[in-house]
Structures are given as C-alpha cells and as structure tokens.
Amino acid sequence: MGLHEWSLGGVLLSPMAAYAVLALLLTGVVRLGLQRVGLAQWIWHEALFDCALFVCVLAAVIAVLAT
C-alpha cells in the first residue's frame, strides 16, 4: 500500500488516517479479548494502557502495510 497520498474526489487523504482507524478497531478487539480472558483486571491505569496499546498496534499496522 505504501505511504502515498490517496486522491478521493480531488481531496488528498493521508494513509495515516486509514491506518489510525484500522489500529483503533484492532485495539478495541484486543481490549475485548483481554476482558474476556480475564487479563484486564491486571491493568493498573486503563487510559494509559489503552493509549500505549493503540501506539503499539498503530506501529505494527504501519510496519505491515507500509512496505
């Protein structure tokens, strides 16, 4: 896919917007999985964990898709 801008109706969109949306969805899936397994009780600061998890997932999405 690469890190090139997309033209949608004459408007240039950054691929980071799509990567961020995908990372947000994947972060939600991971959080639901952690809650169902029972590991969410070990999270000390949920907001900090969510932010760090989002950054890690976003980095993984960019590493996989932006080749």
TrEMBL record:
Protein name per UniProt: DUF1656 domain-containing protein
Organism: Phytopseudomonas punonensis
One Pfam short name: DUF1656
Superkingdom of origin organism: Bacteria
Cross-referenced InterPro entries: DUF1656
Transmembrane region(s): 6-26, 47-66
Record's keyword terms, sorted: Cell membrane, Membrane, Transmembrane, Transmembrane helix
